[in-house]
Design brief:
The complex is a heterodimer of chains A (about 775) and B (about 270). By secondary structure, chain A is of the alpha+beta class. Chain A folds into six domains: about 100 residues, Alpha-Beta Plaits, CATH 3.30.70; about 150 residues, Sulfite Reductase Hemoprotein, domain 1 (2-Layer Sandwich), CATH 3.30.413; about 70 residues; about 140 residues, Sulfite Reductase Hemoprotein, domain 1 (2-Layer Sandwich), CATH 3.30.413.10; about 110 residues, Four Helix Bundle (Hemerythrin (Met), subunit A), CATH 1.20.120; about 90 residues, TusA-like domain (Translation Initiation Factor IF3), CATH 3.30.110. Chain A contains 23 helices and 24 strands. In chain A, the strands form five sheets. Chain A has a five-stranded antiparallel beta sheet. A five-stranded antiparallel beta sheet of chain A has the order 3-14-15-12-11. In chain A, strand 4 and strand 5 form a beta hairpin. In chain A, helix 3 packs antiparallel against helix 4. Chain A is globular. The termini of chain A are far apart. About 0% of the residues of chain A have low confidence. Chain B has a single domain, classed as NAD(P)-binding Rossmann-like Domain (Rossmann fold, 3-Layer(aba) Sandwich), CATH 3.40.50. Chain B contains nine helices and eight strands. Chain B has an eight-stranded mixed beta sheet, with helices on both faces. The model of chain B has no long low-confidence stretch (mean pLDDT about 90). The chains are: A alpha+beta (about 775), B alpha/beta (about 270). Chains A and B meet through helix 22 of A and helix 1 and helix 3 of B.
Chain lengths: ~775, ~270
């Protein structure tokens, strides 16, 4: 178990207050949303129903915690728990009030939800059989747990450009998914020393790629340096303004492999000098006595490396386990006179480990009514369009239909196919790219309407020297998938090949032909079935689909404040009610404070922080303070009207919007400071027009300074003026000439600055 | 106009040009060009279009990369042998310039699909990079009917030629010059005869130049001219050509009003 930092515990406790604020209308839904998501709570398709995601660190869960989860699911979540593909547990279809109850209940047994959604370091992956599997190099679990502890202590890990997924594997087989993560560690012994191979910048989802190897060997004690190095690289290079291209793998794509490695190593070396964050764990001495081995042929039972002990895999269809069944497992474990360990897997199930042979057999009988011994029955499917706002197809219903198709099929056929990984859309919650068979949902429009389809992928794998994304073999209507798989199983049996991927390679021609035959979309009259998804009475449509919540972030909140400010001021223009000017000022002053870590609803504090962060630092001209004083007096009742401040409020909103628009990918304001502009204008004796925009091109070399000047000039209208700071030397010699050659008018060059100049240009 | 820092740097040498500038670069990023055939001509043309930041590029080809292609089809690499050319092309472009959205059509253009492909993204300009007469006539007729500008080109041995068709401009089309495909076997196709690898590079790059200038709306183009290049004598010739009033597709009384498969027989290998 890990130690939860006090700060995180406080944040969890504070959730109730935030929900109450929302209900009272103190905070808006839009503002609540990113907060809620960062607490691991997502809204589902049906309005006002929520999913709450726990953080079970690396899938390590105690019996007591398991009991609590069962109890909470019974009370608040319709008697089901959902096991995820990232070694977590989720509660589905929960009301907002009950999310509070669940969160508080979880906290009693040391489970938190903070950071399980949004732009954070997510649950750290770990091989579920680490420490016990036959191929175990050494137990990596302590390192994985130390990583979670480290991440929870560091608030910046909870405010990254996008999510950050770390994983550990105990052997090159990579059962922890380290070779497709943002940062992955694979256990390795070199010259008798424990350590890791390090992988990075991988990931599924859009533009997926397998990781690149960053280090061939690092001592095990150094893992946190790498966790920090990748985080810093992410913070420095991740694009916060475009959430679709923010993940670490896009940094790799942007920089190229060589530059990425160089940046990574530089960051790593810097951190090694600045900090001291080694972790040491004593090598575990097996405390359990060796027991008598039992005969075992059941595929759900895994013989451990400590002789005579067994791990049993438990899996419910689609990862949805009824509490009654969960309780049977819990009661059985509770009744033993020794303590087995429990580990959640990344395949929507869990292992009960360290069981004696006879007990593994007894537990096998208990789970027999809901866990199948066939790989295909234990396939993985994301939540899909049933509950997820991004989902296209009903992926879980597809899996049920596949299981049905194979239910009374000859066992020799049924055992032909491996576990299938199904996602309801191209986002990879079902990890379709890593499966030997992967499917992901897509919609295709034909003459008679939309058809739910799945792209069929073969040959995906994780692991050292073998990680590869599945290859696209074609797209076929959802309704034809079960039959396709059945025919595929027959084809494989006839081929006599055991390994599925080898079968796909050798029988490619036959498989291509088979898939082609299944890809036809008949008209609705001929085959109406194709136009309905599994388990749906309604014709297939994209109804109910909405934007994902996962990355709702600060930009949305800033935009909300600015648009509120604009709404208030236009309200004032109609009604001339001074309170509207006041409200507009509060919204505008508040908008950017979130970037400074200030989130408050108290007006007085908002104005104070605004002055501290934006006026005293020069971003806004000083006389805005007069407005703020009058605003405060107005609120106290000392002034009746703010009407004569209309222009000042307008200016405030204008500047705040400009600052917002100037945010760079690191969310820094790049707009020139208003006080500097004023100063330069005073010396120029220019007009009182405070809107002169000055672009800072100091330090930008020729010809990029000219290029950037052209970009800025393109944004303004003819006859408008704009200023540029340009360095002495070539820049101030060349840029004006080049701009003049394009027909613009050089108004003035001011060389009173040290080392640079202000060039004012009028657009042609 | 909303360029990020990488884009500003990537396209800086374009933006500096007063004929391109910020607005021109934006036009390129907004533009959609269809390249039919990803071989000797299509490969270099596509590479330069992608490098220039043409935002959407469609690639049409059903062929797979063969080792014998690599002497001139520079968009493919040795590791791509056996891969579909459109996929290999897409991968090369994605690696080079992530701004480009590549749309692949894993098929040969034929009478029944070509108009749909052109309409799929409402392409602004089409590049004929094919290696046989029936495809060239097909592309010509489709572009005339769909009123789309396109660049025709052909290469063989040490020779190359190209022209540009602009609709509604009294521009002669390919059929105005060469009424119909020569009888089978009269002229060897590229796959039967040799070709100097650079020929595709020179002519394909000129095709890309025509596309880019058309998008930017600058300079003169090859509408009304056939440009020929002889690499042995190192001579370029620009021959004036006229619109043919009797042309069966763009003439006053056209007989080709729709595309029919049987009119465009794929080449049959005579050997």
């Amino acid at each position: 178990m890990i130690k939860i930092p006090q700060q995180v515990i406080e944040e969890e406790k504070n959730y109730r207050t935030k929900v109450e604020d929302l209900k009272k209308g103190v905070i808006e839904a839009e503002r609540f949303k990113p907060y809620r998501v960062s607490m691991g709570i997502y809204e589902q398709r049906d309005n006002d129903t929520y999913m709450i995601r726990t953080r079970i660190p690396s899938g390590v869960i105690s019996l007591e915690q398991f009991k609590k989860i069962s109890e909470l699911a019974k009370k608040y979540s319709h008697g089901y728990v959902h096991f995820t593909t990232r070694q977590d547990i989720q509660f589905h279809k929960v009301t907002l009030d009950d999310t509070v109850n669940i969160m508080e209940g979880l906290l009693e047994t040391g489970i938190v939800t903070r950071g399980t959604g949004g732009n954070t370091a997510r649950n750290v992956g770990c091989s579920p059989l680490s420490g016990v599997s036959q191929d175990d190099v050494f137990d990596v679990t302590p390192y994985a747990l130390a990583t979670t502890e480290h991440a929870l202590k560091d608030p910046t890990m909870l405010n990254l450009p996008r999510k950050y997924k770390i994983a550990y594997s105990n052997s090159p087989e990579d059962t922890g998914n380290a070779t497709i993560a943002d940062l992955g560690f694979v256990a390795k012994i070199q010259n008798g020393e424990m350590g890791f191979e390090v992988y990075g910048a991988g990931g599924l989802g859009g533009s997926p790629n397998v990781s690149i190897k960053l280090e061939d060997f690092i001592p095990a004690s150094e893992v946190l340096y790498h966790v920090e190095a990748m985080k810093e690289l992410f913070e420095d290079e991740g694009d916060r303004t475009n959430k679709h291209k923010a993940r670490i793998r896009y940094i790799l794509q942007r920089l190229g492999e060589e530059a990425f490695r160089t940046r990574y190593q530089e960051t790593l070396q810097k951190i090694k000098i600045e900090r001291s964050i080694e972790v040491f764990f004593k090598e575990e001495i097996p405390t359990k006595p060796i027991s008598k081995p039992e005969e075992n042929s059941n595929p759900l039972v895994f013989e451990q490396k400590n002789k005579g002990y067994y791990a049993l895999y438990v899996h419910a269809e689609n990862g949805n386990l009824e509490v009654e069944n969960l309780d049977k497992v819990i009661n059985f474990i509770g009744g033993l006179d020794y303590e087995p360990s429990i580990r959640l897997t990344n395949t929507q199930g869990f292992f009960v480990r360290d069981l004696l042979g006879r007990d593994a057999k007894r537990l096998l009988d208990i789970i027999g009514n809901f866990t199948s011994t066939f790989d295909i029955d234990n396939s993985v499917a994301c939540a899909g369009a049933a509950t997820c706002k991004l989902g296209l197809c009903l992926s879980q219903n597809l899996l049920s239909a596949i299981k049905n198709r194979f239910s009374d099929v000859d066992e020799a056929i049924k055992q032909q196919l491996p576990r299938i990984f199904i996602s309801g859309c191209q986002n990879s919650c079902g990890q379709h790219q890593k499966g030997e068979i992967g499917l992901y949902g897509r919609a295709r429009r034909v003459e008679d309407g939309l058809v739910p389809m799945y792209v069929v992928l073969f040959g995906g794998a994780v692991g050292v020297d073998k990680a590869v994304l599945g290859t696209d073999y074609g797209t076929i209507p959802a309704k034809k998938i079960p039959e396709l798989l059945y025919r595929l199983a027959n084809l494989k049996k006839a081929s006599g090949l055991i390994d599925f991927t080898e079968f796909v390679e050798k029988e490619k021609v036959a498989i291509d032909k088979l898939i082609e035959g299944f890809s036809t979309i008949e008209s609705e009259i001929e085959n109406p079935n194709l136009y309905y998804d599994f388990g749906s009475e309604e014709k297939f449509s994209l109804k109910g689909r909405g934007p994902g919540e996962c990355s709702a972030g600060v930009l949305d909140v800033i935009k909300l404040d600015i648009s509120n400010a604009q709404a208030h001021i236009s309200e004032f223009e109609k009604t001339k009610a001074s309170i509207k000017l006041y409200d507009a000022s509060v919204s505008a002053a508040r908008a950017l404070l979130i970037l400074k870590g200030v989130d408050t609803t108290k007006d007085r504090l908002i104005f104070k922080e605004f002055v501290g962060h934006f006026v005293d630092t020069g971003y806004m001209k000083k006389d805005i303070k007069n407005l703020i004083e009058d605003l405060l007096d107005y609120k106290l009742g000392d002034i009746d009207s703010l009407e004569n401040h209309y222009e000042a409020v307008k200016h405030l909103i204008h500047r705040v919007s400009q600052m917002y628009e100037s945010l760079n990918p690191k969310l820094e304001i790049t707009l020139a400071k208003e006080q500097e502009i004023e100063a330069s204008q005073n010396t120029l004796g220019a007009s009182n027009d405070t809107s002169l925009n000055i672009v800072d091109l100091k330090g930008v070399k020729c010809p990029m300074n000219f290029v950037k000047a052209k970009i800025e000039i393109a944004k303004i209208s003819s006859n408008e003026t704009i200023g540029f700071y340009l360095d002495n030397g070539d820049p101030i010699v060349n840029v004006p000439k080049s701009l003049e050659a394009e027909g613009h008018e050089m108004i003035k060059t001011d060389d009173k600055y040290e080392g640079y100049n202000l060039l004012i240009v009028k657009k042609k | 106009m909303d360029f990020n820092d990488q884009q500003i740097e990537r396209y800086s040498r374009h933006i500096i040009l007063s004929e391109v500038g910020v607005e021109g670069q934006q036009k390129l990023l907004d533009a959609k060009v269809l390249v039919i055939g990803t071989g000797g001509l299509g490969a270099p043309a596509t590479i330069f279009l992608a490098a220039a930041g043409v935002g959407t590029i469609g690639l049409v080809d059903a062929d797979k990369v063969d080792l014998s292609n690599l002497q001139r089809q520079i968009i493919h690499q040795t590791k791509d042998v056996g891969k579909l050319k459109v996929i290999s092309g897409k991968e090369t472009i994605n690696e080079m310039n992530p701004d480009v959205n590549v749309i692949t059509y894993d098929t040969f253009a034929n009478a029944s699909n070509i108009l749909d492909i052109i309409k799929d993204q409402d392409y602004d300009f089409i590049i004929d990079g094919t290696d046989n007469f029936s495809a060239k006539f097909l592309i010509n007729d489709a572009c005339v009917l769909a009123k789309k500008p396109f660049s025709h080109a052909g290469i063989i041995r040490f020779n190359g030629q190209l022209t540009t068709y602009i609709p509604d401009n009294n521009t002669p089309c390919y059929r105005c010059i060469f009424k119909e495909a020569p009888p089978e076997g009269a002229v060897p196709t590229c796959s039967q005869a040799g070709v100097l690898g650079v020929m595709g590079g020179v002519i394909g790059t000129l095709q890309a130049t025509e596309a880019i200038k058309y998008i930017l709306g600058i300079g003169e183009n090859l509408a009304g001219y056939l440009l020929t290049y002889d690499a042995i004598t190192m001579e370029f010739r620009k021959i004036k050509i006229k619109h043919n009033a009797k042309c069966s597709v763009c003439g006053n009384d056209p007989t080709i009003k729709e595309l029919i498969d049987t009119d465009y027989k794929p080449p049959v290998c005579g050997i």
